[in-house]
Amino acid sequence: MSKPQPIEYAQASAPVRAVFDDIKKTRNVPDVNNFWKYLAHDPAGLKRTWESVKEVMTPGALDALTKEMIYLAVSVTNGCGYCIASHSAAARKAGMTEAMFGEVMAVVGMANETNRLANGYRVPIDPAFE
Amino acid sequence: MSKPQPIEYAQASAPVRAVFDDIKKTRNVPDVNNFWKYLAHDPAGLKRTWESVKEVMTPGALDALTKEMIYLAVSVTNGCGYCIASHSAAARKAGMTEAMFGEVMAVVGMANETNRLANGYRVPIDPAFE
Amino acid sequence: MSKPQPIEYAQASAPVRAVFDDIKKTRNVPDVNNFWKYLAHDPAGLKRTWESVKEVMTPGALDALTKEMIYLAVSVTNGCGYCIASHSAAARKAGMTEAMFGEVMAVVGMANETNRLANGYRVPIDPAFE
Amino acid sequence: MSKPQPIEYAQASAPVRAVFDDIKKTRNVPDVNNFWKYLAHDPAGLKRTWESVKEVMTPGALDALTKEMIYLAVSVTNGCGYCIASHSAAARKAGMTEAMFGEVMAVVGMANETNRLANGYRVPIDPAFE
Amino acid sequence: MSKPQPIEYAQASAPVRAVFDDIKKTRNVPDVNNFWKYLAHDPAGLKRTWESVKEVMTPGALDALTKEMIYLAVSVTNGCGYCIASHSAAARKAGMTEAMFGEVMAVVGMANETNRLANGYRVPIDPAFE
Amino acid sequence: MSKPQPIEYAQASAPVRAVFDDIKKTRNVPDVNNFWKYLAHDPAGLKRTWESVKEVMTPGALDALTKEMIYLAVSVTNGCGYCIASHSAAARKAGMTEAMFGEVMAVVGMANETNRLANGYRVPIDPAFE
Fold this sequence. Notes:
Oligomer: homohexamer
Radius of gyration of chain A: 18 Å
Order of helices and strands of chain A: HHHHHH
């Protein structure tokens, strides 16, 4: 059996529990998502990834909603099923309405289309963009 | 010689000129970008793509800046050099500051990382996201 | 019904059976994986793909484990669910430990992140790398 | 200096020359493309890749032009600059007109767009397609 | 609950019904595929996408079968499960035989392989392709 | 002008210099690569990325060479020109021979091919891999 299994809080080592506790406190949720329960197989990676995500997703020059929509746009482009599901939920929690979701999808679709047209027609970069 | 060449306004057919004129008027620019000059080899595709882009990028539930940053995030994920250059410029014109650009890149980088961690650990979607 | 179906040994043509036999003998397994049973719809493609995989995956300058981890890293980057599952298993069979798996995932995640940062910041190649 | 350099016929080993000769004869060209001159650093890989390409690109149920346009469509989707250039040329040589090129690009663009819309809306497969 | 749900004809607004009616009439089918039922959450996007798809997929310099096989090749490259299923079906309906399907897959596989070899060996574009 | 410019040590702020100093010391090099000079526009991102890369690339269950070859394999799959150049160099510095490079490329090519064959034939995961 090669498929990874989740590590629940009850089975987790102290370093993993410390990260789980910080996720739960920071996000004010009763349990962590599956993503973290699987990543817990690599305690150092779990800690590094969570601390990076926490730092990157904290509102700064961009607000939380904008960041979540960008995260979703990347996940849709890459076709990551888990990430599309989890970041759709996160973006909605941060305030993404149905209309906003539709517009994110429309921009993502259009960008994926024109990225290929630019590739295929071998368009050189305009001097103004250099 | 197989490399496509740009079609400038002076050489363009009437249908192509009509699109170029609409781009120049809509964006209030003296000339169209290379992207459109190459796409002009397919006048129907030029018209369809421009009208789609115009419709999709018009501010609606999301403002112009947010849309441009999402466009940029997709282009960076796909590694489209032309599109990164042109949509970096468009996003800056729409108000993206240096700090915002840094945060867009940070989110794009993080999403591309965690997309692969979710793939690799074969994380199942949480029931709450279904 | 458009979904391909597997071709089992009992139904297989002689050329397909010859490839299945070689896979079973080379890998010392009682049956071939689903991948080969589906590819059997194209007997020439089955033979060509198997012979290429066999040649490429034979230990040479790199050992079998290193090759399997690279195969897994590519499959995770591309988000190919079947390939992630089958090459996780193959890498474990070749000696990949839990700790090694965690490090492969960490490198894959980091590379996917920095690939996009390099794209987005439009970093020119250092003269030393040319 | 880490950048690979081409291996020209005059410097090539006998096994590499044998492949170069077969490419030149099969394609009726005076010299091989850069792709083969770089791949020549791995003589076994050069031979395997050339023989696979030759087998796959030989007209069968699909003619040469259709195959080249599919090759181009994949290369454009992946954003491989070298491959877009070389397979645009190969497709034109096989009969791709300007109008056909425009239609290939239009289909590639549209497919890349709708692929992401299907991802983002998490569309389940219709029973009729199973 | 964040997962999008399909919008069936009976619940659909007038603008959505108008698009559904046109799809059913154009394709001579009793109901639209799931893709359109999900996209219906964005009526303007539904209309724009359908009209673009209809225009792009109409036979022109390329026939319907060739266009569907290119669509399939892109979808396979991107790993879009829904699109692979729906465009396999569409290509078969347009006349793709089992042998043709096998050859499309072989070309797609080979192109994905050589795209990476060209990347990795950093092959410069031949002057003849410029 | 929208193209980012490098930040050299002489112009750098104290936090950026601290990271540059740590990179130079850790890698025992006289100057940092362009990647870090561009990322310096986001001092927090520079620090986070460097510390993550340093942690991930430190030899552990996998040695430095194996990690660099995996990094290269991902970069080649994604088509990131800068990363292919810099991680080819890093892998060679860590001991990658010409023969090893050829085998990395061969595995990367093969994986990219079979990933698509598995997608296209819609191969279900074998029970043994679950």
